[in-house]
């Protein structure tokens, strides 16, 4: 196995580890909590007037979905990074 093949195999392991942590129940629950709270606030700020005027079309609904998705992804990636860093510290001790 060459150096590039070893590096590719290591990247696959890193991605699998990242996904395993990202889809773990505590990380998903935390991400959903932040998505609902922060996403709801952002939707109210950015789309509240259109909601009150009942001017919500499919384009605006797509934007609202992305508004909720962004805090979920930020929370999840932050949680995964923190867990991986903590795990590295624990294994180094």
Chain-wise SSE layout:
Layout: H1 3-22, H2 25-52, H3 58-92
Helix pairs in contact: 2-3
Could you please describe the fold and organization of this structure?
The protein is an all-alpha fold and 93 residues long. The chain has one domain (3-92). The chain is built from three helices and no strands. The chain has helices spanning 3-22, 25-52, 58-92. The longest helix is centred in the C-terminal third of the chain and has 35 residues, at 58-92. It starts with a helix and ends with a helix. The model has no long low-confidence stretch (mean pLDDT 92).
How would you concisely characterize the structure shown here?
By secondary structure, this protein is an all-alpha fold. It has helices at residues 3-22, 25-52, 58-92.
Summary keywords:
single chain, 93 residues, mainly alpha, elongated
**Oligomeric state of the chains in view:** single chain
SS strand fraction? under 5%
Q: Give the helix proportion (percent range).
A: over 70%
The overall strand count is 0
The helix/strand class is mainly alpha
Instruction: Tell me the major beta sheet.
Output: none
| Number of contiguous helices | 3
Q: What's the N-to-C terminus distance?
A: 31 Å
Mean pLDDT: 92
Which outline best applies?
Answer: elongated
Low-confidence segments, ≥5 residues, pLDDT <50?
none
Number of domain units: 1
